[in-house]
């Protein structure tokens, strides 16, 4: 295979791996955020403040994180996989 094409395929595979790692990091951040809020509740944070914070910030932030993860999994990664297949299957010359 053409070295330029091989390099493009390797770069796309690296990008795909980055997206997977990024998704893992986002998921971990969402969990960490939840634990932080739970810790505040355990430290006797006023229940009304806790519930307000959860409804106004935590739920929205977790929803946005989940949307980013889903967009990467359903859009970016499949696109990269199609590009890799296309490069692997396209004859050169």
Explain how this protein is built.
This protein is an all-alpha fold and 93 residues long. It has two helices and no strands. Helix 1 (3-42) packs antiparallel against helix 2 (47-89). The radius of gyration is 20 Å and the shape is rod-shaped. The N and C termini lie close together (11 Å).
Which regions are unreliable across 5 or more consecutive residues at pLDDT < 50? none
By secondary-structure content and strand pairing, the structural class works out as mainly alpha
- Strand percent estimate: under 5%
Number of separate helices: 2
Helix content: over 70%
Q: Could you give the distance between the termini?
A: 11 Å
Q: What is the 3D shape?
A: rod-shaped
* Main sheet specs: none
Q: What average pLDDT do the residues reach?
A: 88
Report the strand count.
0
How do the helices and strands follow one another from N- to C-terminus?
HH
Radius of gyration: 20 Å
